[in-house]
Known about the structure:
Elements: H1 2-15, H2 22-51, H3 60-93, H4 98-101, H5 104-122, E1 132-135, E2 140-143, H6 149-186, H7 194-231, H8 240-264, H9 266-288
Helix pairs in contact: 1-2, 1-8, 2-3, 2-8, 3-5, 3-6, 3-7, 6-7, 7-8, 8-9
Amino acid sequence: xxxxxxxxxxxxLKSFTCWEDNTCLxxxxxxxxxxxxxxxxxxxxxxxxxxxLSQWPYGLFMCKLSSFLGEVCCSASIITLALVxxxxxxxxxxxxxxxxxxxxxxxxxxxxxxxxxxxVLHIATFSNMLGTIxxxxxxxxxxxxxxxxxxxxxxxAIVFLPANTTIIYTYSCIVSASYRHSRQIHTQxxxxxxxxxxxxxxKAICTFLMITGMFNLAWLPYSVLALLRGLLPSTxxxxxxxxxxxxxxxxxxxxxxxxxxxxxxxxIRKHVKKIFNFKMCFNKVFHENL
Length: 290
């Protein structure tokens, strides 16, 4: 479902007339990172989880590759969310300077950076110094975080904390600005275009707040777990349900984003309905001709 849902979002965003819009470009990059999570982590975990295997069945290289690509996609996802928040911040708070700061060339460079930085950070997965482990409770391969606390802190300090600080600050400013404009409308002190401002940006704000909130709800517990693995003695064992639930809760975010797109984006929802209506009509005609 993660693969099919995000692939559908990628295709739909690319077919929209807003494809030249910067927001659509960032959203497509976000959908690509979610698709990558499904392709590199959850897909490889289906067979081990179904058979309750105590060993990784695909070999050491595939364990390292799955861990590396999955962690790259996860880091790229949160960096992309930070880029989206910055783009929305400038668009809403500094609209007159938007085209000065957000150029096509800068946006493409930022997207390339959102992938290249995680690749550089997580390339250590292939080194013997870091290594990878197969968790028999979650059926996933990951970097050996418990024995490398410094590496875990580095990832959190370079990717997670700066991105989340940026997201919280920008969206706090956006929500605050929207609240001020709403109060101006109610007190009839707003300029003529204020109501249009609120209507245009309300759904966009809800969309990006939901995406950001669900991402942190999914990934923050797992990040804390990874940090605790390095801080606590190696003899300490977390409950099996914690080892299983938190990684898969993080993975589920890649599917939740699909629903967020559908709920808060009428154009996407409209195109999805057309696809399903066409499929239903095709099946009806097919069965009638049998």
